[in-house]
Amino acid sequence: MTNGENLESYLVRAGFPHERIEEGTWMLVPDDAREHRIGLKLQDPIVLVSVPILHVDSTTPNREALFRRLLELNSELMHGAYGLQGDQVVLSAAQQAATMDFEEFQAMIDEIGMALATHFDALSAWTPASTRRD
Question: The pTM is what?
């Protein structure tokens, strides 16, 4: 079985709602991830998981406090981490495709979903008002 076939079978086995975008690329929407769509991409030999969190630029108020908070939240994560891609804060994780088993795959995706669900309030001061929970 190829790495792509393994990932597809893991998605089905785990019951994650997903759609295949193209060969080796899927979008996932875990029940507890709110509005966030999680990108899953096979770039042999790596499986990449990434979800955009919020836009940050020079006009973002209290950027230093945001970056500090992201570093603090990183300490709660085992498989993933918050980082910057250009002006976008992303939550991402990566694993070796050839050696990743189902349990590692599920743990990585579950952790991303858990972080999206539980870290939302901690990051709400920096999210646009239209996406905040009241």
Answer: 0.84
Reported as a single tens digit per residue, the pLDDT across 72-112 is: 999 999 999 999 999 999 999 999 999 999 999 999 998 99
Q: What's the domain count of the chain?
A: 1
What tens digit of pLDDT does each residue of 25-76 get?
999 876 654 567 899 999 989 999 999 999 999 899 999 999 999 999 999 9
CA atoms within 13 A on the CB side of 128: 6
Radius of gyration, CA atoms only, the chain: 15
Transcribe 16-64 into DSSP letters: --EEEEETTEEEE--TTSTT--EEEEEETTEEEEEEEEEE--TTSTTHH
Residue of 52, 111, 43 whose CA lies nearest to 76:
111
Which range of residues forms the domain containing residue 103?
A: 3-131
State the CATH number of the domain containing residue 113: 3.30.1460.10
Q: Is residue 46 within 8 Å of residue 52, measured between CB atoms?
A: no
Reported residue count of the chain is 134
Amino acid at 36: H
